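Lab intake sheet, docking and co-folding queue.

SAMPLE TYPE: protein with bound small molecule
LIGAND NAME: pyridoxal-5'-phosphate
LIGAND FORMAT: SMILES
REQUESTED OUTPUT: full 3D complex as C-alpha cells
PRIORITY: normal
SUBMITTED BY: R.K., bench team

The fields below were copied directly from the construct record.
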Amino acid sequence: MTLVTPSIIGRSVHELPTPIAVLDDSALEHNLTTMAGWCREHGVELQPHGKTTMAPALFDRQLAAGATGITAATPAQVRVMREHGVPDVQLANELVQPGEAAWVAGEVAAGFGFRCWVDSPDGVEIMQAAAAPTGAVVDVLLEVGSPGGRTGTRAAAARDAVRAAIGRAPNVRLTGVAGYEGSMAGDRTPPSMAAVRAYLETLRAAGEELAPDVDGEVVLSAGGSMFYDVVADVLTGGGRVILRSGCYVTHDSGMFRRNSPLDGPDAPARLRAALTVWGTVVSAPEPGRAFLDVGRRDASFDQGLPVPLAVLPRGEREPRPLDGAEITALNDQHAFVALPVDAALAVGDRVQLGISHPCTTFDKWRWIALAGPGGVVADVVETRF
Ligand SMILES: Cc1ncc(COP(=O)(O)O)c(C=O)c1O
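RESULT FIELD (auto-filled):
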C-alpha cells in the first residue's frame, strides 16, 4: 500500500493502472446527506451496517452525517470499529465465543457503547458468564426470526425462554428486539413487500410483548437498504427505531438501483452509484465482443454482473456513456463484454463498470481511490476486512 497510494493522490483516475475501484466523493456525500435527511424526516435512527465497506474513514463520515452508531456482523469487525474509536456498535448477531464475549464485556466496563443480539438461552448464558467477572452489564436485543429463515427466535415460546434466561442473568440487560427483513425477500414485488411487512409486524408485536422487561423505551432494530421505508412505516410508534442499512452509502447500478426506496421514477429523492470499477480493453478479437482486465477478483458477481456505464476511448480525455454494452460473464481477471452491432470497443479503451451489491466489491479492495472534481484522486479509502 505505501508503495502505491501516496503516488496516486492528485492524479486523474484515468491515468491510473486498471483494474481500479473508484469512489465518487460527491455521489458518496449526496448519499450520506440524502439518507440522513430521510431518517430525520421519518424519525428513525441509522446505525449503518459497517460490514458493507469496513472502511473506517467511511464510518467517520456516516457518524458525522448523524448515524448514532455502526453495525457489525462479526466480533472481528467489532474489534476494528472499537480500535478506530467508534463509540457505539451494534453486533447484529449473537456473541457466542467466550473469549470474544469476555473482551467485549471488558470494553463495555471501560465505557464502550455496545449491544448485540440474542436468540437463545445458551447465548444469554455465554454472555452472562463472560460479563460477570468484569462487572459490566451488556445490552442485548432479542432477535426475531421466521420459520425457515435465517437466525432469530421462531415463535413466542422461544422468545419467552430467552426472556427468562435474561431474567436469570444480572449482567445481561434486555433493551428491545431486532431482526432483518432483508432475508425475507430480494425485490420489491407485491408478494415480497407483503412478506416483509408481515415479518415486521411480528417484530413490532414482539417488542410490545417484552416492553414490561425493558427499562425505558424499547429498541426496535431492522432495516437493510431495500425495505427501510416499510420498516419505518411498520415500526414507527412502537419504540426507538434503529435502521442498519449498509449499501445505501454507495448505492449501486444493479440490485439496489432497481430495488431501493430511494431510486426509480417515484422516489422522493434518488441515491447515486458512488462505487465503480474501471478496466481497460485488453482484447477485441471479434465483432461484438471485447474483453476487459476486470474479473471476479475486482467486482461483485453474486447479485448480478457489473454494468458498463462509460467508455474513455484510448487517447481521449472525457469519458462518454457506453450504451447497449453488457457484461455477459466474468472470469477471475477478465470480463466478457457483448457489444451492440453499431458499437465497438478498441484495445486500450477504458471502461467504467457499475456494480451490483456494494458489499462484495468493497471486500475485494484494500484501498479505493476517492475521486473528487474532474476525477482527480483526493484521497485513498482503506478497507479493513
Ligand atoms: C442483519 C443485517 N442488518 C442489516 C444489513 C444491511 O443490509 P443492506 O446490505 O441491504 O444494506 C444486513 C446485510 O446483510 C444484515 O445482515
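REVIEWER NOTE: The chain has two domains: 5-20+270-382, 87-245.
SIGN-OFF: pending second check by T.M.
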